[in-house]
Amino acid sequence: MRNTYARTAVAALMGGVLLAAGGLAAPAAHAAPAPAPAASAAPSPAAATASAAAISDIPRLTDERGRVLTLRGWNVEDKTHRGEDALSLITEKHFRDMSRQGFNFARLLVFWDDLEARRGVYSKPYLRRIERILDWAHTYGVRVLIDGHQDVFGPAFGHRGIPEWATRTDGLPFERNPDDWFSEYFQPAVQRAFTHLYEDADLQRAQAAVWKLLADRFGDHPAVIGYDFLNEPMGELKEGEDLPTAARRIERDQVTPMYNRLAAAVRSQDRRKWLFVEPTPIVGEGVPTGLGRIKDPKVVYAPHFYNTAMEAGADYDPKAGWIEAYEAAVTAYPKQHKLPVVVGEWGPLNNDGPNMGRFYDDALASFARYSSGYAGYVWCYGGGYCAVDRAGKLRGHKAKTVEPYAAAVAGEVSTSAYDPAKGVYSLAYRAGWSSGTSEISLPASEKGWRVSVHGRAWSGTSQVGPDRAEKMRVYAVPGARVTVTVRRR
């Protein structure tokens, strides 16, 4: 990101010039073709949400009790401050406000260059600040994914992520491009730095040591749901190689071994939390990942959901078939390896185009078909990518993300649907035999909610008053078929 709250145009992925060992490539020409758009009108959000289990060979995320989880939330970050002020932009208010809107998930950006600015010296104050953030999250019922974040590798190139001492360029050139930060990934020095990170034994050990430290320090924290090893991994293109081919090779030969090394490091300290793995951002072009098998039983596939034209400021084009192409590409890997999916970042900078309401409906419907949730980009107070304005109100179509949902279901879900026009949420499931209590997240609503439970089940909540958020609990006899209906008052 160019600054804390902005993501500039991704010209390189739109068919712009890519530096590939002196060659040129136009990736858009090689992207998987988008399927023809359906002739019928877009499904309503209610109908789309009801199809959450439509891709049955992608499993759902579960908690330690085996309950089926739905994660809905936002990234939280501080890319501005370092040293003594690192993470100071993230406050208790973030989690209090997210919880009030019904969100239960945060992807927390942490930077290796903050944690280990000098080789072998880990910042105790930085670790304490992470712990304070986790404590706030736990207070408000928000699960946290610890994200090892990088943008354009790190501070050696004017960004954040991998420390300068771990940046090796072999003297290759680098030139800043303030008007298109993403194109800097294709500078020779940046690409070579990724190669060294993946392949140099001492850097492999240093990176593993960081994740071992984080798992040791935070593995027992009740707010932590898992670890995201590297944000948007990239790499070095070979001469004559187009971008999709390079991405699949990098994912297969360099990123997969890295993830397996880091998984082993985490598992030496923490056996219980989920491990989140990302493909390269090229998946946004409709290119299936080349990632191989991650040798661990608790892996989550965590792609990002960005459209290059929309990142450059264009309105959503429902006829272009981008979401359909993305969904086809992004679901191949979790189907093959039987992994749950959580979308780690999404949300366009332009929130006001004529078709943006349709975009949010289509995106949320797509997520419901294959994912266990998402983290929007980004929970901050202001303009640009910020989820909320300075008064704390969700901005524009981002308000569509606020709705009742089943945060945790102790059983097998058959229907989970919200109809925003009618203000009605419906959940149907068969209660499990040993997994306990189900939880339904009800965001604060102007008039409140009415609740009814049918089947051999009960709840202490029958109504929720105006402007109150509630985490409703449902108790059921094992094996019972349960229906829960929530209506806006």
Q: What structural class should be given to the helix and strand makeup? A: alpha/beta
The quaternary structure here is single chain
Uncertain regions: pLDDT < 50 for 5+ in a row? Answer: 1-53
What percentage of the residues does DSSP assign to strands (E)? 15-25%
From the N-terminal CA to the C-terminal CA, the straight-line distance is 41 Å
Q: What is the average per-residue confidence, as pLDDT, rounded to a whole number?
A: 90
What does this structure look like?
The protein has helices spanning 45-50, 92-100, 112-115, 124-139, 188-199, 201-218, 243-267, 308-311, 322-337, 356-370; strands at 68-69, 71-76, 105-110, 143-148, 224-228, 274-277, 299-301, 304-305, 345-346, 373-376, 405-409, 411-419, 424-431, 438-442, 449-454, 457-459, 463-464, 470-476, 481-488. With 489 residues, the protein is α/β, with parallel strands linked by helices. Helix 7 links the parallel strand 5 and strand 6 (274-277). Helix 5 packs across helix 6, helix 6 (201-218) crosses helix 7 and helix 9 runs parallel beside helix 10 (356-370). The radius of gyration is 22 Å and the shape is globular.
Quick recap:
A 7-stranded parallel sheet has the order 7-6-5-4-3-2-10. It has a 5-stranded antiparallel sheet with strand order 1-11-14-18-16, with no helix packed on it. It has a 5-stranded antiparallel sheet with strand order 12-13-19-15-17. Helix 5 crosses helix 6.
